[in-house]
Design goal:
By secondary structure, the chain is an alpha+beta fold. It has one domain: Jelly Rolls. Helices cover 34% and strands 32% of the residues. It is globular. It starts with a helix and ends with a strand. The structure holds fe (ii) ion.
Length: 235
């Protein structure tokens, strides 16, 4: 029987082959001119068909219980900030050693990510995709990889991430047993961008966005959403 690391390594190897469409984009970066202009105007862009979808779904299904067991639950309560405004609220699970202040907890989470081969997967994927990200956004470099997990009812209300500076998050969300996604402010409205396994979201820090509550489609099956993120910052 394969260990978790062996299974993850086998699926990661196939994931890193990317799709023919991604290889074509990487070979001829001029193909992305329209995508670069969309990112400049909205601060958000989806590039479809970057990762092989069935491999990514299988890997996500394998990772979810493992990552859940080392995750930190994020609970950000809404507060009334005036008679007409409410602060940002959120509930979800985070696996991101860079967001943990306690050295022991941080080291333990980083160790598990290393052991499972996920630190390596993140940096290998970032190495492959950096030319494309730079073509779309400009001179940026990969910093680290993180994972967010959403269970039934989890959400992040409308916010932007201006407080973290000009970071760009490159995300690979996958929703299981539900139609999940992200909403982004574009041309005056919050517009739904559904998760499609294998698509790559490029999320600037100043775009207004939210993760709608994860809804149950089926009485017997819990919805889940995994988002693998690669954090890039300006050079
Ligand atoms: Fe955000």
């Amino acid at each position: 029987m394969r260990t978790d690391r062996e299974t993850i390594q086998a699926l990661s190897g196939r994931l890193l082959e990317l799709t023919p469409r991604a290889m074509q984009l990487l070979e001829d970066l001029t193909l992305t001119e329209s995508e670069a202009s969309e990112f400049r105007s909205t601060g958000f862009l989806t590039v479809p068909d970057v990762l092989p979808a069935t491999v990514w779904v299988r890997l996500a299904e394998h990772l979810l219980p493992l990552l859940c067991s080392i995750s930190i639950r994020v609970g950000l309560e809404h507060r009334e900030t005036s008679a007409t405004t409410l602060s940002v609220g959120a509930t979800f699970r985070r696996v991101d050693p860079h967001r943990i202040h306690e050295p022991d907890v941080r080291a333990k989470m980083a160790f598990v990510l290393d052991e499972l081969g996920l630190t390596e997967l993140g940096s290998s994927l970032a190495d492959l995709l950096t030319p494309l990200i730079r073509r779309i956004v400009g001179p940026l470099s990969f910093r680290h990889c993180y994972f967010y997990i959403y269970e039934e009812g989890d959400y992040v209300s409308i916010h932007n991430d201006h407080q973290v500076g000009d970071r760009v998050d490159v995300q690979f969300p996958v929703s299981l047993n539900t139609a999940g996604g992200i909403r982004v402010l574009s041309r005056g409205y919050m517009q739904m961008r559904y998760d499609v396994a294998g698509s790559m979201n490029v999320l600037g820090s100043r775009v207004w966005h939210e993760v709608p509550p994860l809804l149950r489609n089926d009485a017997n099956t819990a919805p889940r959403r995994l988002n693998m993120g690669l954090r890039f910052t300006p050079d």
